[in-house]
Specification:
The protein is mostly helical. It is 60% helix and 8% strand.
Length: 120
């Protein structure tokens, strides 16, 4: 299920996190699907359980997964969690545009244009 590049620039936990995010976004993992336990996934990948735990913690913080005590780790549903993920993605895009030199006024104009298209 997971392909890890030990010599890559991305850390192992980031690779696990990004792959799970991709599986969720592409519908491979669906809401309420159970993920492997931290210990099980760590054993399967031959890595430290703390690495898997860190990936799971970030995924949970960002609304991709949730944990039920003594039951396991599950893929989050789409409603509020999807909004949270979409908001995080949108903020990331806006930050990138800002870093590339777009001014606040230019970004506001782009937003106005998008909302103007809805009323046409």
């Amino acid at each position: 299920m997971f392909l890890l590049n030990i010599q890559g620039k991305e850390t192992i936990y980031e690779q696990i996190r990004s792959q799970i995010e991709r599986f969720i976004k592409n519908g491979i993992l669906k809401p309420d699907d159970k993920l492997p336990s931290v210990r099980s996934l760590a054993n399967d990948l031959g890595i430290n359980p703390n690495t898997v735990m860190k990936a799971y913690q970030e995924l949970e913080k960002n609304g991709y997964i949730y944990t039920l005590n003594k039951k396991g780790v599950f893929v989050a549903g789409h409603s509020e969690n999807q909004k949270l993920r979409d908001r995080t993605d949108a903020l990331g895009m806006l930050r990138t545009l800002k870093e590339e030199g777009f001014s606040k006024e230019e970004l506001e104009e782009l937003l106005k244009e998008v909302y103007k298209e809805e009323t046409c």
